[in-house]
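Workshop exercise sheet. Pairs work together: one partner reads the sequence aloud, the other fills in the structure field after running the prediction. Swap roles for the next sheet.
Pair: D.N. / O.F.
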Amino acid sequence: MLPAGIIAGPTEGMLKLVFATDYLRLLGGQSLADNGAEPVTICRVVASDAFGLGIKKHVNPLPVSAVYSVPQVAGVGLTEEQARTAGVAYNVGRCRFAMLPAGIIAGHTEGMLKLVFATDDLRLLGVHSLGDIAAELVALGQVVIHRGANLEIFNDLTFANPTYTMAYKDAAFDGLTRVAWWRGRQRQKAS
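Structure field:
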């Protein structure tokens, strides 16, 4: 029997899952650093399995890492050093918040977004950000990495302006420009 005023979702088990995750959140408190595999997510996997809900089956193998400081620092995927160590031919695209209307309007012009991508197929390998809302900004990159998409997706998407997400479009354009310049140099050397 549920307390008055509480409406269960499709199953009472889902309500138990919400209570379990909220209880764990109260026990764990908030942290200034997060690796994306926080106890709440682990609890959701366990509770989903225990109640047979099938709504959360595993912890994300590509977690976002974030430090909630001023400024924030966040990243997901490979860093330049990791790509170099793995022998991956890579390049980067950057966007400084000082170039974004959202950053200028908010008065938060310090910071940047960096995209690490494979040079051959332009596949996104990593996203790293420093500055206002860095932790929120890298989540979009996580989705693109999971889908195996490349930088062209940011050219194809329409972003609201002024928003910090425009940093993806600007950083992708910067990266694509670098690759076009490098490929042009290679053609010149070949001829």
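Discussion prompt: Confidence is low (pLDDT under 50) at residues 1-30. What would you look at next?
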